[in-house]
Amino acid sequence: xxxxxxxxxxxxxxxxxxxxxxxxxxxxxxxxxxxxxxxxxxxxxxxxxxxxxxxxxxxxxxxxxxxxxxxxxxxxxxxxxxxxxxxxxxxxxxxxxxxxxxxxxxxxxxxxxxxxxxxxxxxxxxxxxxxxxxxxxxxxxxxxxxxxxxxxxxxxxxxxxxxxxxxxxxxxxxxxxxxxxxxxxxxxxxxxxxxxxxxxxx
Length: 202
Known about the structure:
The chain contains nine helices and nine strands. By secondary structure, the protein is of the alpha/beta class. The strands form four sheets. It has a three-stranded parallel beta sheet, with helices on one face.
């Protein structure tokens, strides 16, 4: 998505809300830069794009607790605001899903809803994902979040019958919820080529 925006002249940057399961450098951000065709940027070097990193691969709340720390929500917001001051679009990737605890009394979705961030939900045709997708859309709608769109990822684990039917089911449910937002299919990355994600940002 960042690559698509950058190739169309939109100054975009990605931020990992919280990174668990690594030390010092956020592995996901390294992959982000590879996929978007860019090197590490100034904000990466300052730690603004990975404001919270924990070693244990678990929910942010648990990973932080195991280190005797707490997720610093103020630092996260400060870093994202600093990125937003210099870039037209900041893509914030969550950690583990919408209902993952950031603290002992705050879920990721509630944190995002408080900031009034539009949500782009990423899903696939893997078995069980339609349940997660529909519950996530419903939870976002209940919190009055702006749903900017849905990304339907190719998955090697998806059954072809389910993979063909799931986007239709998601669109039907979105209509039922009154969500007027695009659904964009993403093929296998090696065959993806140039995908236009601009409808999400219209």
